[in-house]
Write a structure and sequence with these properties.
The strands form 2 sheets. The protein has a 4-stranded mixed β-sheet. Strands 1-6-7 form a 3-stranded mixed β-sheet. The protein has one domain: Hypothetical Protein Aq_1857, Chain: A (Sandwich), CATH 2.60.300. The radius of gyration is 13 Å and the shape is globular. The two termini are about 20 Å apart. The chain is mainly β. Helix content is about 10%, strand content about 45%.
Length: about 100
């Protein structure tokens, strides 16, 4: 199971948005042909729930993509007012074309 932590600021913001986060693998392509899956956080339930494992962190339901490495991951909040977004610090995962993004 992945080790996930959430900052108090992000936890409060997510709770106000419904209390659910999806951590997914977002494929990023390098300039020389390399690939990596960066962790991204969305405030929603994943479309394909069978490709995620669900954990509860500080009262927030977190769906962690099976495609992500074991972590650890830290979710924080960045930005101001309407332009706030979740940011994730954590390990890279090997990207495979069949991974959901």
């Amino acid at each position: 199971m992945s080790a996930v932590t959430i900052s108090p600021k992000a936890r409060d913001w997510v709770t106000a948005q419904g209390g659910v986060i999806t951590l997914r693998a977002s494929p990023q392509h390098g300039c020389c042909g390399g690939h990596a899956a960066l962790p991204k956080a969305d405030v929603r339930v994943p479309d394909a729930e069978d490709q995620y494992r669900q954990i509860r962190v500080d009262g927030v339901i977190v769906h962690v993509a099976n495609a992500l490495s074991e972590g650890p991951y830290h979710v924080d909040l960045d930005g101001v007012w309407r332009w706030q977004r979740l940011v994730v610090e954590g390990g890279l995962s090997p990207w495979r074309p069949s991974d959901e993004s």
